[in-house]
Specification:
By secondary structure, the chain is an alpha/beta fold. The protein contains twelve helices and eleven strands. The strands form two sheets. A seven-stranded mixed beta sheet has the order 5-4-6-7-8-10-11, with helices on both faces.
C-alpha cells in the first residue's frame, strides 16, 4: 500500500484494498484469486509468477498487475515485455544472469572459511532448480561442496532444515520463492541457532536479522507496480503497458549478525557500498 500512498491514495477513502495471502501454499492460489475476482475489484495485484498465473486463470477481464516475475514471457503471463497483450502487465525481476553464482561468491567473501554450503530450494518456483545448478557450478570453482535441501509445502520445512543441520553445512544459500518468504521467521531462527552464515534473495531477510541479501528490491518492485495500478485506474489498458524491468540489485548486510558470527566486512564487499543495517 506504500506505493499507492505515495501516489496520493488513502485507504478507506480514495481506494479500497482487499488482501489475501496463500502463506506460501501454491494450492491455495486458485481459490484466493477466484475469491478476489468475485469481490468487485478494479485491479488485481499478484506478487509472483505463480500468483499471476492463478489470477490470469481466474479472469480475462479484470486488469492484473504482477509485482515480481523473473521471466513473465517464459512464465506464460504476457506475449512479450514490450507488448504484453491481454489483461496482464507488471514488473520483471532480474534474477537471471548468473545471480545464483553471485550469492555463493558473496557468501564466500563474507565467510571465507565456509567450504560446505547448503542450498535450500523449492519446486514451487520453476526457476529454482536452475538457480541451484548455477550455485553448484560456482561453488565448484571456489572449491566448496554443496548439498541440496528441498521443501514444497510447510510440513516439509522442518525436515529440510534438520537435513541442513545434519549435513555439516557451514553456510546456507536460500533460493528465491514466495514459499521461503512465508517461512522467513523460521529460516532466520534456524540460521541464528545453528550460527550459519546465510545468503538470502530478499532484502527483508537481512533487515530482519539475516546475515546478507542480494537481489532486486521487492519493495521497489511493488512501488513500480503501484504506478501501473494508478495508470490503469485512470484508464490505461494493461496490455498496452510494457512490462517494467527492475535490473538493479541491492546488497544488504546485517552488521549485528556479522559481528555475532565473528565476521568482518572485507574491503572487497565494502567497496560495493552495501546497505548496512543493525
Amino acid at each position: 500500500m506504500r506505493g499507492m500512498s505515495e501516489l496520493g491514495y488513502v485507504e478507506g477513502r480514495s481506494v479500497r484494498v482487499e488482501m489475501r495471502s496463500a502463506d506460501g501454499q501454491r494450492d491455495r492460489l486458485a481459490a484466493l484469486a477466484a475469491e478476489l475476482v468475485r469481490s468487485d475489484i478494479d485491479v488485481l495485484v499478484a506478487g509472483s509468477t505463480i500468483a499471476a498465473r492463478a489470477a490470469k486463470a481466474a479472469t480475462a477481464a479484470i486488469p492484473v498487475v504482477f509485482a515480481g516475475s523473473s521471466d513473465p514471457v517464459a512464465g506464460g503471463l504476457v506475449a512479450s515485455l514490450a507488448r504484453p497483450g491481454g489483461n496482464l502487465t507488471g514488473v520483471s525481476l532480474a534474477y537471471g544472469g548468473g545471480l545464483a553464482g553471485k550469492w555463493v561468491e558473496l557468501l564466500k567473501d563474507l565467510a571465507p572459511r565456509v567450504t560446505r554450503i547448503a542450498l535450500l530450494w523449492t519446486s514451487t518456483n520453476p526457476a529454482s532448480a536452475q538457480f541451484v545448478e548455477e550455485a553448484e557450478a560456482t561453488a565448484r570453482k571456489l572449491n566448496a561442496k554443496t548439498a541440496r535441501h528441498h521443501a514444497a509445502v510447510p510440513g516439509e520445512v522442518d525436515a529440510a532444515l534438520r537435513g541442513v543441520a545434519a549435513s555439516g553445512a557451514q553456510g546456507l544459500v536460500v533460493m528465491p520463492s514466495p514459499f521461503w518468504v512465508a517461512q522467513r521467521d523460521a529460516l532466520l531462527a534456524f540460521a541464528a541457532k545453528q550460527r550459519l552464515p546465510a545468503m538470502y534473495f530478499d532484502e527483508e531477510f537481512a533487515e530482519a536479522g539475516g546475515l546478507v541479501s542480494y537481489g532486486p528490491s521487492i519493495a521497489e518492485a511493488y512501488r513500480l507496480a503501484a504506478s501501473y495500478v494508478d495508470r490503469i485506474l485512470k484508464g490505461a489498458k494493461p496490455g498496452e503497458l510494457p512490462v517494467q524491468q527492475l535490473n538493479t540489485h541491492e546488497l544488504v548486510i546485517h552488521r549485528g549478525t556479522a559481528r555475532s558470527l565473528g565476521l568482518a566486512i572485507p574491503p572487497s564487499i565494502a567497496a560495493r557500498s552495501p546497505r548496512m543495517v543493525d
